[in-house]
């Protein structure tokens, strides 16, 4: 199993980033946080500083199975504005790599990707217009092929569990959910 990367940009939604990392680490997934900023410390949308594990410039594209994008503003826009990340994301997606995005990130980041078909997606309400070629859904978490999208912070744990299920197994996701008193 390859590692997964969760990308942090200034203004990221803390709940969406940290809940997903927590769920994946509880499920024994090798997930690292990656700063797309100049330094390892990245400040979230609500002023919470988080120290990332690595900088984007120190990450090698082929070492990841899952690329995970939290939302938040201006975090999702800052991810979208990072050309190194978006180029890497496009190559990863084109090769069938797994991508997960939540809140504003499906709209602002994935909305710029060239996709081979109309994918089922969800995003934060009001951002649907950024995804004119998507089959938009109202669900909290939507999976379609190698793509998982989440609606917003209230669905962060379920979003993390969907990623865990895809990386490890349904049983692992059920065990983590039970340990978190969700099942």
Strand and helix map with partners:
Elements lengths: L2 E6 L5 H13 L4 E5 L5 E3 L5 E3 L2 E2 L8 E6 L5 H7 L1 H12 L3 E5 L2 H4 L11 E2 L13 E2 L4 E4 L2 E4 L5 H12 L2 H10 L4
Parallel strand pairs: 1-2, 1-6, 2-5, 6-7, 7-11, 8-9
Antiparallel strand pairs: 3-4, 10-11
Provide a concise account of the structure shown.
The protein is an alpha/beta fold and about 180 residues long. It has helices spanning about 15-25, 75-80, 85-95, 105-110, 155-165, 170-180, and strands spanning about 5-10, 30-35, 40-45, 50, 55, 65-70, 100, 120, 135, 140-145, 145-150.
What does this structure look like?
The chain has 183 residues and is an alpha/beta fold. The protein has a single domain, classed as Class I glutamine amidotransferase (GATase) domain (Rossmann fold). 32% of the residues lie in helices and 23% in strands. The protein has 6 helices and 11 strands. The strands form 3 sheets. A 7-stranded mixed sheet has the order 5-2-1-6-7-11-10, with helices on both faces. Helix 1 runs parallel beside helix 5. The longest helix has 13 residues. The model has no long low-confidence stretch (mean pLDDT 96).
